[in-house]
Write the structure tokens for this entry.
Amino acid sequence: MNVPKDLRYTKTHEWVRQEEDVLVVGITDFAQSQLSDLTYVELPSTGDKVEAGDELAVLESVKAASDVYAPVRGTIVEVNDQLTDSPELINTDPFGDGWMFKLEPENPSDVEGLLDSDQYEESIPEE
Amino acid sequence: MQKQTPLYDNHAALGARMAPFAGWDMPIQYAGILAEHEHTRTRASLFDTCHMGEFEISGPGAEADLDRLLTQNVATIKMNQCRYGFLLKEDGGVIDDLTCYRLGPDRFFLVVNAGTLAADAEWIQSHLSPDTTFSDMSPTMAKLDVQGPDSRAETEKALGRSLPDLKFFYCAEWEIDGIPCLISRTGYTGEWGYEFYFPAEAAARIWEKLLAPGAIKPAGLGARDTLRLEVGYPLYGHELGPDRTPVAAVNGLFMDTNKDFIGRAAVLRDLEEGVPEKLTALRLETKRAARAGDTVIHGDEPVGAVTSGSLAPSLNVAVALAYVRSDLSEPGQKLEVETRGKRLPAEITELPFYKDGTARRKPKP
């Protein structure tokens, strides 16, 4: 299972990459493999103000739907519109082209409270 | 503890994702539901359906007993023909949906759902004449389905011999490498295909032989469900159950009311007086799916419930089956489905959703 060292994580399987003042958010390789083939993605809107833990996006696979949560408090500044037509990007490249949205955190230090890669790896159930 | 089919080790070796289904640990997917669905629609796939139940019923009174138990006409099933229908309670509620094969003048074979097997066996046995023999073959019988337009050619290549010419819903007693095998041209995908029944100890050998050339690929219960949903086949526990007659799901199909059968009075009542809700085929507007249990809404009024729903991979749009108030159940009716707090527009359409299935094609020369 791929868990890049340079990212931060949540217990609900989002990853967060710091890019200057903005956080790029997606779901982890573990999460995409559990969901399997994604068929539909509902994204938040640019400008949405969110609290940590808010349900921000919906991911659907053939079998079920699941939520994606805001990792920290902030404002959505960009969403990955490519996912609307190509939700499978999340399956094929969860940490790259499968990114979901960019969020400007209200408190930049909040990201320090997220899991590091070792902590996240420990939280993943053994297969 | 879930039961394992004789192919459990094969599934593990293929890296299948397993999940409980009707008391069995079953493969849900191998390569992925979408890929397996597509391969079944365009080529051929192999499904482990060993969880399903098989009964053999024989004796001089078997035909009359089954005609009284089942909604389909059993007396007119020809030798080596099979016919789909229902096992009903007195009140018309569905105990199971099943296929009845005639293997002789006094010998029949029933294929039933895994989850209902025990109840079916008890009900059937309690309604047989003393000289009719009931045998539950399920513990020692394997079942494999090959489904898809290339099923015949690729099965013949894999087995190195020709398959018998079979019309849709006909069967033959056959053999594979000396192993006795019942083969029928039936299935649950809407595609041309076969169901094979044979002794469980041969399951791994035949499974491996069918997959060896590589053209036939394994498919799991996930794809089996999207394939059957696209052609509108009902699934027991979703579209069929003990609380209503099959009339709301299939109108008068698969039921011969010119003969007597248990539950006939309730079926006739529903056919004559109508039913409050009918099973409808909903086409949504996007790939966002409605799911079983979601409420169907007209205006602001709840008017029904979804029984099955997902993306229809061959149509690239979400579809659902739903029981809807009868006055709103005609094709063209616009409705909404509430799923996870959001309303999705839907329109009633005609079944099947997917119209290019090859199941009923004439046998190739």
Q: What stands out?
A: The first strand of chain A starts at residue 8 and ends at 9. The interface with chain B takes residues 36-37, 39-40, 42, 58, 60-65, 87 of chain A (CB under 8 Å). Chain A has four helices and nine strands. The domain at 16-117 of chain A is CATH 2.40.50.100 (OB fold (Dihydrolipoamide Acetyltransferase, E2P)).
